[in-house]
Inverse folding.
């Protein structure tokens, strides 16, 4: 999309500049061939004026500085956007990893204590911890899970169900932030 906008903007600028030059040639009654011949054969006095030369150099330097700054800030914006996209993709990968961790841990041993112990020592938990709700972290510390899954005993620890709900909530937030 950015490429398309850049091309459209370049086309508009080119059209405007060529229209202005064409209008100036028509108003002044100059043909391009005649104007080039006059410049190369005997330049007008304002071209040889020292102040004009200084002004041309100053305008050139200003254009180069503006183009350089535009490029620098555009690249910074692109890098910042790709870092944000990378962070979102990394977070979605962590969520998938946490779901896999939950599934494997419950398959190994469906006990509540085993799951809490494995969760507390897993690196994925430490990376996701800032995004987990205070209620979930409190339930993990205290051992009391307020929300219990309805529908009978599934053999899955209540804290594992709470973790899965937290992961769903975080994923929904990330996906809504993407668009």
């Amino acid at each position: 999309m950015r490429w398309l906008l850049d091309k459209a903007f370049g086309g508009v600028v080119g059209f405007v500049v060529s229209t202005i030059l064409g209008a100036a040639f028509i108003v002044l009654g100059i043909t391009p061939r005649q104007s080039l011949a006059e410049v190369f054969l005997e330049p007008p006095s304002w071209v040889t004026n020292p102040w004009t030369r200084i002004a041309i150099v100053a305008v050139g330097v200003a254009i180069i500085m503006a183009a350089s700054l535009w490029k620098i800030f555009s690249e910074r914006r692109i890098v910042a956007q790709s870092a944000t996209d990378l962070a979102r993709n990394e977070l979605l990968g962590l969520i998938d990893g946490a779901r896999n961790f939950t599934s494997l841990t419950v398959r190994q041993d469906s006990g509540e204590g085993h799951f809490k112990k494995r969760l507390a020592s897993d690196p994925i938990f430490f990376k996701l911890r800032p995004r987990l709700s205070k209620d979930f972290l409190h339930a993990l510390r205290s051992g009391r899970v307020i929300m219990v899954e309805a529908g009978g005993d599934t053999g899955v620890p209540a804290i594992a169900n709470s973790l899965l709900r937290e992961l769903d909530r975080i994923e929904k937030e990330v996906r809504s932030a993407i668009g």
